[in-house]
Design a protein that fits this description.
five-stranded antiparallel β-sheet, 13 helices, alpha/beta, five-stranded parallel β-sheet, elongated
Length: about 300
């Protein structure tokens, strides 16, 4: 799996579980631009299963027409189109629709070397073929979420001052080049990532996931609401679930003896800097109960708490 985020047991900051998109939008709209019919049909079928409303076009001109005359939450744009270059379409569409997330689809791993950064950075992200379903899901989740935030900001500005919408219509922070200022830093420091730095970050995350998947102990990460966000291969093997299946579960689903009061007590102890070790029971996908020794730490990532359990 190619991951675009930092992994953390008892959960990850970006909620990518199936069904999440329905809480953000009743049916997020996706414009899929690709002239390869087999790829388009397979991808569109998958996206519809995930709850997206998908429109498909095969040329850059059709993409510009649809993208500028209809409302979409995200555009999946192939770089190699029959009528015009996908990067040109990216630049024009992002200029005319600055708040519309555009995700590039490319078969070229050297895209960042052949495309000027000022053009490439107009994309919210890009996926290199062949891409995994998990990768597509996560990028689309982030895109739709950011699109909704941008729309709310624009509506708020328009309501307070109709002129403010055009004055503030700046492209949203890209995954490729985030421009959010960290707390405690001056407004002049924006910690922007270049495409090269982003690529290094992706490689690092892929390496760390590879390393965790080759650890013999099971590792699980969950958020403060007990939703599982990450599991390594050992955890999947132990419990009999796939990684995708585990991300649809919560701690009580695999811990039959889970007690909420004890859980809250453990959280408070973890917040005091303690590491907890104890024996408990995990239930596999097929109902078998396994005695396990577990060690839990609390992780604070970007202001959110996660529990990381090693069993």
């Amino acid at each position: 799996m190619k991951s675009l985020g930092t992994h953390e047991w008892a959960v990850r900051g970006q909620e990518t579980r199936k069904g999440t998109i329905h809480r953000m939008s009743a049916s997020p709209r996706v414009l899929l631009v690709d002239d390869d019919q087999d790829i388009s049909l397979a991808l569109s079928d998958y996206l519809r299963q995930e709850g997206y409303d998908v429109d498909m076009v095969t040329t850059g001109n059709m993409a510009l027409h649809k993208g500028t005359t209809q409302a979409y939450d995200v555009v999946l744009l192939d770089v190699g189109l029959p009528d015009r270059d996908g990067i040109e379409v990216l630049v024009e569409l992002s200029t005319r629709k600055p708040h519309l997330p555009i995700v590039l689809l490319t078969a070229f791993t050297s895209l960042q070397k052949t495309t000027p950064p000022d053009k490439l950075n107009k994309a919210f992200a890009y996926l290199t073929k062949p891409y995994s379903r998990e990768e597509v899901r996560e990028v689309l989740y982030r895109s739709v979420k950011r699109s909704g935030e941008a729309t709310k900001e624009a509506r708020g500005a328009e309501a307070s001052d109709p002129r403010a919408l055009s004055e503030r219509a700046q492209p949203f922070p890209s995954i490729l080049q985030p421009s959010q200022t960290r707390k405690g830093e001056g407004t002049g420091s924006q910690n922007q990532l270049t495409v090269e730095e982003y690529q290094q970050l992706v490689k690092y995350v892929q390496f760390m996931e590879f390393a965790f998947d080759h650890v013999s102990d099971a590792i699980l990460v969950a958020d403060i609401d007990k939703r599982l966000c990450y599991a390594n291969q050992a955890a999947c093997h132990e419990l009999g679930y796939t990684k995708e299946e585990l991300r649809n579960l919560r701690i009580p689903d695999i811990a039959p003896n889970h007690d909420n009061q004890r859980y809250q007590k453990h959280l408070n102890e973890l917040r005091e800097g303690k590491t907890l070790s104890y024996y408990t029971t995990h239930r596999t996908k097929h109902g078998q109960e396994l005695p396990v020794a577990i060690s839990v730490n609390l992780i604070n990532f970007q202001g959110q708490e996660f529990t990381c359990a090693i069993t």
